[in-house]
Amino acid sequence: MLNIKELLDKVKASPYREIVIPAPHTGVVEFADLKKGDTVRGRSGDFNEKPGTLLAHLTREKNKKIIQAPEKGEIESVRTELEGQFVEAGEPLVTLKHYLTRKEVIELILQEALYLFRAPERAKYYFVPEVDQKLKVSGKRSVKVVEGMELMIVSRMKRETPLVYSGPEGIIYSVYFGRGDNVDEGEPLIGICPEDQLTVIQDVVARIQSEWEEMA
Q1: pTM here?
Q2: CATH 2.40.50.100 domain residues, the chain
Q3: Which Gene3D superfamilies does the UniProt record give (predicted)?
């Protein structure tokens, strides 16, 4: 059985993830006036209309484009030795330390605690009508799944085939795709929670929501 307390302690000990921002294309790089420890913000606003903090400019064929912080965080390192140099696409330029939000911590814990039923191929996925209706009317945790149950429809190249569930018995706790989304092979479709673990997981989620302190 998963030791959720141990996992939560591990997240608390290292409550961030590193984000490496590469050059999106070739060009000459000019960095903004940033140094290790500076805080930056990602795009924000109801429609992501507010730009993230400027990290650098990349000039190609006299066309200067900006590189912005994708998420809120702290500057971990800047490749200042590349200032004024021509760089290839994909060259790492800036590394951010992004402190996990309450929502991200919950998702991280859930992805470890739940059984993840993954996409067998890149395609669009839809729940079969009976399951879809129950999810809409009664919510995710109203659907119990068992081995061999016809659960979804796989839609690819104008071809639709049924997808049978394989995995432990339980209830649908999380859904990781939206109707009509293309899901890559290996990406999780749903997270399944054994019924006898539901209370434990709900308690952990409630605890994170009340105790986790987000960075300003």
Answers
A1: 0.70
A2: 10-99, 103-211
A3: 2.40.50.100
CATH code for the structural domain at 10-99: 2.40.50.100
Q: 138: which residues sit within 8 A by CB, 6+ positions away?
A: none
> Per-residue pLDDT tens for 82-138?
999 999 999 999 999 998 988 888 888 888 889 999 999 999 999 999 999 999 998
Instruction: Kindly report the CATH number that applies to the domain delimited by 103-211.
Output: 2.40.50.100
CA atoms lying within 13 Å on the CB side of residue 146: 0
Q: What is the pLDDT of residue 152?
A: 95
Residue type at position 73? G
Mean pLDDT of the chain: 90
